[in-house]
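User: Hi! Is it possible to get a structure for several chains at once, not just one? Here's what I have:
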Amino acid sequence: MLGIAINIVYLMLSLALLFAFIRLTRGPSLADRVVALELIASVVVGYVGVHAIDTGVSSFLDVAIVISLTAFLAAIGFARFLERGGVKDE
Amino acid sequence: MSEIFVSILLLAGASFMVLAAIGIVRLPDLPTRMHASTKAGAMGAILTMAGVALHFSDSAVAARAIAFIVFILLTAPIAAHVIGRAGYFTGITLWSGTTKDELRERYDPDSHKLSSGLENKTGRAVSSRD
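Assistant: Yes, the chains can be modeled jointly so their relative placement is included. Here is the combined structure:
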């Protein structure tokens, strides 16, 4: 039961990753790409959580926390770069 | 029994993430894309972490999962606000069906100043932002 659900969840998360990657490559402005990057980080956190259940290793939760933290800091950094006169209206 | 609940939580979380990804591809401009991705993506991560906490049924794992959920709830709105603000200030084009843009007459892109619209009534000087 749980094994089938985990396989379905892996498949759905891969689909979400593919869609976010499409927006990452096509996004007309840098802000769109930053939004796509943040969604990719969120999907990867989902992968790590499901993998923790799949393997039974609870230490993967620390990995998820670190990925989430770096994604937050990257978003703040990109926003500061944009506001301090980075790329203007590509 | 708990396997069924864990499966439901994981499937719900993955469904939210797929919805967020579809929204980020299909929606027309930056604010609507952020509307889809930030809220649904955070909800997906929160439901997945709830499934992890329920599966291990260990107080240390549950405490870490709850700490993660609190962290997501704190940081997701801040990141969305900051990116939306930076995107607006760099001059993204809004969707043609946008009906309300309250910043358009208040914000001056040359001097990077935002007026509240109350300066002349109260007689105070225009407060300058950094």
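Chain B has one domain: 2-99. Helices of chain B lie at 2-26, 30-56, 59-89, 119-122.

User: Great, thank you!
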